[in-house]
């Protein structure tokens, strides 16, 4: 084992401002293997990659590459040590030629003069190694994304890399292009390179990888040999569902995250509070065959009044993309949306808000808060937008609304004039919920409403969801936490690979196992 | 941010006080205001009068900058508007028609800018640069490539007249500031501008018509520049397509930035812009009175901008704090991780 181990990470720990992003993570890659690194959002994949590539400094642990201890302080140092990285977004310069991009920052030449003939020769050699046919004098921006990716790999390999890190390289590639990439990866594996492959697509994991490391909540959830790992067990491990794996159990109770609320308690509590399905209620929202190229395949979805509809699935399964179509953020290529039985056109969030929709984005920071504006302004902005500029809420009305929601949702803030960026994540989320409740919506879409917030706030938000349902709202709840889905939803639509994989109604059928099966696409 | 706005205003007033104090020490007559024929005269009055045109352009610029954009075309709009004014007056129309024509020119220019930026998503610098460059040509076309001399009593009154002993131009501009402030606070327009400037995506997701808000700020900025064109032409009693509004965009941006509105958008302060324009003009006038050669005069102005920009830079403030902490042997603040390059 020692002879073939190329990279060995031991007890890697990394904190950010008191938050533990990685805790005691071990990770090893052998020479001549493709090692898949998997995990849901917030699992610590990208932090681990950044530690590996010298973007972040370690807080604890050791890294050895080919027996030598390394501690890269920058991507350049990591590259010099033999670790090269290709990111999802090709970070090359589109306006330069292929050859220039490959040589960028290490042009052969002397005394400030570049030997352009050598630059082109190097580029041709680097591409030939990957068996890529491409004009090295062509402008990079004129090539397809797939080819640009190949150029990025060629550039990465040009520095005699020992380890190649591919961070979601297939996210924007079509099937044929993925096959081409895999061919290149196999060739490099044959040359004895270690490849770390980060992806969301499980099919691809099984198609190319030799071993798999799963992270969850900043900890190692397990290391497996791909061929010996059933799909169901893989998904269970990623989601923190107990199967029988030793490593998975040890990581089941993460410190900062309430994802591991003990399942038995949940079962017993469901007696009185089983979310009703309310099949008899009128649909508040019905989508028929809505789809978007590169986003979601045609999907049907109904949310009734007084119902919490769950939308479950792994990362990249198309949940958020579906929500964005419903809310008019992205234009649908096809399909119809009916509200109260009438076909409606939703071309912008503004249209959606006017129809009584509300949408809490999963990305609070870039799509939710107005960071420098006050809690008050953040809270009233959607209602004010709905009323228009001329019918301004008076200061007294605004303060009344704020006082009401700060009390009702127990928002912790010194006062309503504090900039929202000074609040904790959970309180920011509550302000955003209040922003939407103030518009008196009929349909509210919550995309990962409890992500990244503390356990207490999490429970309060779940209580709020229950109250909204009781008030007759139609709630569409998107969550990566299976327990959260089961606790709150009357019906659950599971998505897999950008399609509906199946629907489960609350009751004996709605079990974590069933949902995991649907997410993984296997039948037990 | 609220605290910072406060402190920005504070620094502005402190800067003004400092300059005035310096001037008083060296020449006690600097602040003297006399009354001739019932009109106010004196250096402070001149400062107000001379800064009024920059203030007017800066008023529109403040809102554009608050949405995270910039309007470089204002100088050229001033020139076009001035030329159109001269023509309209030359045809014997009255002042009201002239003013309407000037504002109309501004509105048209602003609409073009707004469409380019908001509808077609062209970078504000590029979009308004188009009109900045092309606008001079348009002004030349309108004026036939000549400086048009205007002789019109009402027109001159706009620039050099007095009402109730006070100069008309600064009074008019101050009124416009007041009306704009009132409009922004009484309607939700001010909130929308700040929301869009602070986080455009989040504003759009909250159901605001972010593109429309942005476009309208350019329209407003154009109207301000159009009005400024009238005042500029009135001031020199001529429309000069080459020189009118020269560097107006830079002066306006200076005033806005010195006034505490960040170029990144978000919170804005009209009062800050007003005082910022005043501060810059006071500095210019001071140098004039101290006999600083005109060729050197831009240097202190530039230093002022550098100082203000540095104070607004979070990196610089953090660095200052760190230095202060080190010097004071206090516990060093936990240095934040350097922002990683996004993958």
Report on this structure.
Chain A is an alpha/beta fold and 524 residues long. Among the domains of chain A are: 1-82 and 211-257, 3-Layer(aba) Sandwich (Rossmann fold); 278-356 and 442-524, 3-Layer(aba) Sandwich (Rossmann fold); 366-440, no CATH class. Chain A is built from 19 helices and 22 strands. In chain A, the strands form five sheets. Chain A has a six-stranded mixed sheet with strand order 6-9-10-3-11-12, sandwiched between helices. In chain A, helix 4 (116-129) crosses helix 5. The longest helix of chain A is centred in the middle third of the chain and has 16 residues, at 175-190. The two termini of chain A are 34 Å apart. The model of chain A is unreliable at 243-272 (pLDDT under 50). Helices cover 70% and strands 5% of the residues of chain B. In chain B, strand 1 (33-36) and strand 2 form a beta hairpin. In chain B, strands 1-2 form a two-stranded antiparallel ribbon. Chain B is mainly α. Chain B has helices spanning 2-26, 43-66, 74-90, 95-119, 124-143, 153-160, 168-186, 189-198, 200-205, 210-236, 248-258, 270-289, 298-312, 314-327, and strands at residues 33-36, 39-42, 148-149, 162-163, 166-167, 238-239. Chain B folds into two domains: 2-291, ABC transporter involved in vitamin B12 uptake, BtuC, CATH 1.10.3470; 300-328. The A-B interface holds A 16-17, 46, 50, 55-56, 75, 87-89, 91, 167, 327, 329, 348-350, 352-354, 359, 361, 366-374, 377, 380-382, 384-393, 417, 419, 435, 439 and B 1-2, 186-189, 191-192, 194-195, 198-199, 201-209, 266-267, 334, 336-337, 340-343.
